[in-house]
């Protein structure tokens, strides 16, 4: 049996909120899919040059996701959702802030 006290804080919180081992096994392949998309997009386009660019890319991906949702296309909804998640991670990795949570670079 897993002892939640041995988990890092974020995982401990998720575990306490019902994120059980079976759900983790399902999430792992999804995370790998998002990371693969992150690698592909970063290799193709490079890092974001600014927070504005990152926002615009995330917004574009989100609009594409919404278009696929309206078409009720489950396959493309999943692809676009993976791209949204990958671009959100890319934003977090590429955009730096000055530690004051005010000025992003």
How does the overall form come out from the CA principal axes? globular
Order of helices and strands: HHHH
Helical percent range?
Answer: over 70%
- Major β-sheet, in short? none
User: What percent of residues are in strands?
Assistant: under 5%
The number of strands is 0
Query: Helical element count?
Result: 4
Oligomer: single chain
Round the mean pLDDT to the nearest integer and report it: 82
- Alpha-carbon distance between the two ends: 45 Å
Low-confidence segments, given as residue ranges, are none
Radius of gyration: 17 Å
Tell me the structural class: mainly alpha
SSE layout and pairings?
Layout (H helix, E strand, L loop, with lengths): L8 H8 L4 H25 L5 H21 L2 H21 L11
Overview of the structural elements:
The protein has a domain at 28-94. Helices cover 71% and strands 0% of the residues. It has helices at residues 9-16, 21-45, 51-71, 74-94. The chain is mainly α and 105 residues long.
